[in-house]
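Support request from a user on the community tier.

User writes: "When I paste my structure tokens into the form, the page sometimes reloads and wipes my input. The last time it worked, I copied everything first. Here is what I submitted, just in case something in the input itself triggers the reload:"
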């Protein structure tokens, strides 16, 4: 069976999907699901949700086109349903993207469990809340797990797939197959930990970035420029470990720790002294307005998407050549 036929067969199993919460993340998942020919029912209490999702589909069209996905007439398989039980009643798969509050997600899954077909795959986009915690009020949490995307999910490849203690391994395998059929790069974590992997890393970097700005070492714009011209570029190609493995010279990490270990001992014992306060937030807000406030958000997003797509294409091309020459 070709990859395309296999993907089509997998997506056929999840033809009827429900998106709970269609804000930044939910609308993007909806666009991707629709572009892959799935039926989407959106459940979101916002009074103008239909307009918002339609606006998003229009905004996402150039990116979907660049990804060589269908991008016109997507609305024909889209429906809105304000009643939760009715929204999930016929769903083969639910992708939850509501408020990031544990109690809210716990209540939601307990309600969904009453109305959703037993075979349905239940996925949460949560950035930090583990499935074991989310499913606490469910009688059967075997089909519930985290499928954490990166913004925007219709473009960024990674989905962190994180099963809970009650998740059936088959549900994890099903989620991986589903996301892969959508063209994503699902990665299953070996253990649940709040914040998962990528966001824990981003959290540490953001803390240090705020510290550097607070100390007046750089402005936020200068910091962004430094990152995109160094570690941002580097990490799109090599993760921190393979980068530093090469940084250690011919002996890899042996050389790396010999050279940098003593400095790491000092810096690990003395993390930068910054506390999250309103004053820190206000400083970043003001610098954010000054640096980026004059550019319309849609223009920033367009540039982000175009550059990301160019980067993904360049990376895919170079990998093959590099392997041939090695
Ligand atoms: N923004 C990101 O970069 C990002 C990335 C990955 C994952 N996430 C996760 O995705 C989830 C959604 O985040 P977001 O940034 O899209 O938030 P958002 O505020 O943009 O969207 C949340 C949506 O949920 C809706 N909602 C509120 N109450 C609801 C209810 N009772 N039933 C259904 N919908 C309801 C809101 O109307 C809103 O449209 C969170 O769990 C977040 O952690 C966010």
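"...and here is what came back when it finally went through:"
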């Amino acid at each position: 069976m070709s990859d395309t036929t296999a993907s089509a067969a997998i997506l056929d199993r999840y033809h009827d999907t429900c998106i709970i919460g269609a804000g930044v993340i939910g609308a993007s998942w909806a666009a991707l699901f629709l572009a892959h020919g799935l039926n989407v029912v959106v459940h979101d209490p916002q009074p103008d949700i239909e307009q918002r999702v339609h606006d998003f589909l229009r905004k996402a069209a150039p990116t979907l086109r660049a990804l060589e996905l269908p991008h016109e007439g997507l609305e024909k398989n889209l429906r809105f349903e304000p009643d939760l039980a009715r929204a999930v009643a016929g769903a083969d798969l639910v992708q939850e993207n509501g408020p990031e509050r544990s109690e809210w997600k716990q209540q939601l899954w307990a309600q969904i469990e009453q109305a959703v077909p037993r075979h349905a795959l239940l996925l949460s986009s949560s950035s930090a809340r583990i499935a074991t915690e989310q499913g606490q009020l469910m009688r059967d949490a075997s089909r519930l797990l985290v499928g954490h995307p990166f913004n925007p999910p219709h473009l960024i490849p990674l989905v962190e797939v994180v099963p809970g203690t009650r998740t059936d391994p088959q549900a994890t395998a099903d989620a991986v197959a589903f996301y892969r059929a959508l063209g994503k790069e699902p990665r299953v974590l070996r253990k649940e930990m709040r914040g998962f992997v990528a966001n824990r890393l981003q959290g540490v970097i953001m803390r240090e970035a705020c510290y550097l700005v607070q100390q007046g070492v750089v402005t936020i714009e200068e910091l962004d420029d430094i990152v995109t011209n160094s570690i941002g570029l580097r990490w799109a190609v090599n993760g921190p470990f393979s980068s530093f493995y090469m940084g250690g010279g011919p002996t890899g990490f042996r050389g790396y720790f010999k050279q940098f270990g003593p400095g790491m001992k000092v810096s690990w014992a003395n993390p930068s002294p910054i506390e999250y306060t309103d004053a820190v937030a206000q400083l970043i807000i003001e610098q954010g307005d000054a640096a980026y406030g004059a550019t319309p958000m849609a223009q920033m997003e367009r540039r982000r998407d175009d550059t990301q797509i160019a980067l993904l294409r360049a990376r895919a091309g170079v990998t093959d050549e590099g392997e041939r020459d090695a």
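Agent notes: The reload is a front-end session timeout and is unrelated to the input. The longest strand covers residues 144-149. The chain has 14 helices and eight strands. Escalated to web team.
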